[in-house]
Amino acid sequence: MSGILGLLCSVLWSISSSFCSDYAVDSSSQGACTVARDVPLRMLAIGDSITAGWGDPEQNSYRLPLWNRLEADCKERPIFFIGKYSGSMSDNLHEGYPGYSAAKLATDIEYDLYVSLYLKPNVVFIHAGTNDCDDILPQPKSAEAAASNVGKLIDMVVHAVPNVTVLVAQIITSDVPGKEFMPMINRGIREVVAARADAGFKVMTVDMSRIGVDGTDLADGLHPNPQGYRKMANLWFEVMQVASGRGWITPPAEVTFAKSRRSVRDSMRRVVEQR
């Protein structure tokens, strides 16, 4: 049932908002429900080729193992992903842009991202910064810029969807040019997330830097293999449990009907510009 709902809700101009947000949860058939009991999950994954699922033959990234853990944790509630792109599983939409640095994500996907944000996700995952390593050499200060651009991406999300919970990864370890700057990027990511949390937004870091350290979690030295993606999913799940314990994950907001992608983009641009 949740798969059908996810597909319906991902097509903006063919849904009724109350249908998605008011779908009832049958608590009699629940699991442990350690993540947001009775709360429908409308989730958005943002990032580069790792978010898109490269290295996974099915290109499902961490979304399929995460979906499976969430479904086992709390059965019979809506769990779906939203976004522009997809892999092979149902409910597998995402905003993963292969080859994009944090800088490019923060500037070039703005209006496409607004279409997804218009659907009011209540949980957003961000893994960005790996592709910035090529841009950093030989300027260590550019690691700060990479983290700053992750901060800009966070700002786009929280200003468009004020009550959203944003989980931001400290990037996995990959064998890429400039990999020595990954710890600097990850320190910067923690700092920009802390600044947004101090400002009152529901934003939290997820340390994924242990994944890929010995290469066994990677398919090609850069992208996780299915084992690596399962580890990412487990870390996302664990931090969702923490966020849930804090009362952060609340039902997604209603979505008003829009006639076109352009009207959605214009509407979301006005929302962000007014903040």
Name the beta content range.
5-15%
Helices and strands, in N-to-C order? HHEHHEEHHEHHEHEHH
Largest sheet, strands/sense/barrel? 6 strands, parallel
Please tell me the overall pLDDT. Answer: 82
Distance between the termini: 37 Å
Outline the structure in words.
The chain is globular. Strands 1, 2, 3, 4, 5 and 6 form a six-stranded parallel beta sheet that branches. Helix 9 links the parallel strand 5 and strand 6. With 275 residues, the protein is of the alpha/beta class. It is built from eleven helices and six strands. Helix 6 packs across helix 11. The chain has one domain: SGNH hydrolase (Rossmann fold, 3-Layer(aba) Sandwich).
Quick recap:
The chain has 275 residues and is of the alpha/beta class. It has helices spanning 2-10, 17-21, 49-52, 63-73, 102-108, 110-117, 133-136, 141-160, 182-198, 226-245, 261-273, and strands at residues 41-47, 79-82, 95-96, 123-127, 165-170, 202-207.
